[in-house]
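Problem 3 from the worked examples.
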Amino acid sequence: MAMREIRVVPDPVLRTACDEITTIDDKVKGLVEDLLETVDADGRAGLAANQIGVNLRAFSWNVDDEIGYVLNPRIVDLSEETQDGDEGCLSVPGLFYPTVRAWYARVEGIDLDGKPVVVEGTDLLARCLQHECDHLDGKLYLDRLERTVRKKAMRELRERL
């Protein structure tokens, strides 16, 4: 297991959709160990594989004292009810902007044994599940911001680079 370095914008891996995991081998098992160790730090709610430079569909979460992972996650249900709160990202350090997300989210995937996994939650966990699935599709939370807010965020980001 290893605490892995977080990739930050403008690293192109963050804008690349991740590949499905087709074989669960030692490489994938090591990836999960690294995701779990790296997410287990203060201020970290979730971590997608591409944030540590691996182009595979996997993420870990650390919400409300629960740490877990899911392989090949897909959002299968979102509530119509929304939440609007500041969101940040380890790959976009220091920026927090109001981001509208579904209040409830349900993700389905598999575990290291290839067995089905369901992760569902509200509030912060729902936000985390949506955020990490976006990462695996090559999207950042900045892409979801309202147009004028996104312009402000991108300007602030350029000033930091």
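Problem 4, a separate protein:
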Amino acid sequence: MRNAALNRATRETDISVDLNLDGIGTAVIDTGIGFFDHMLTALAVHSGIDLSVTVDGDLEVDCHHTIEDTGIVIGMALGKALSDKSGICRYGTAFIPMDEALGFACLDISGRPFLVFDCDFSSPAIGEMDTQMVEEFFRALAFQAGITLHLRCEYGKNDHHKAEALFKAFAHALKQAVADNGGGVLSTKGIL
């Protein structure tokens, strides 16, 4: 089984993540931030990864620590579940429309973390989630999981739709990348 369960507690957040890469997309999410819960649920459902996330964060300050730290722990859990990365397709790409918005994700589970993020939001927040935290979440996840990740909103007007298109595009690209390739490590080096 390709799964991982992690807990990370700091003075700002206490986060538990349990994920199963070979799940059916079951989501049990409670971060205290409604829109972020919605996005993590979409991530689980569209990737087919069973994901349980419980967060007790310092929301009296703002949403930053809760969202960034959740990205850190999900990224750590992904890295642990992928182990030596043998037998995976490694790459994934997806375009996802969400009404008038079109999101794009392309990723490489390479062990070389990087994020290219290209999405302009017109509002400071979606519900209780600061729009700038979309990028921070994906940066934290990508760097902890060792993923090279390119995310772009091709176009769109509604910030909810733009963010959701990016989360779903990432989910579909991740689903491709973690799929079984029937072989060993997909690298000329022999390791990732």
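Solution to problem 4. The first helix runs from residue 34 to 47. Helices lie at 34-47, 64-82, 132-145, 159-177.
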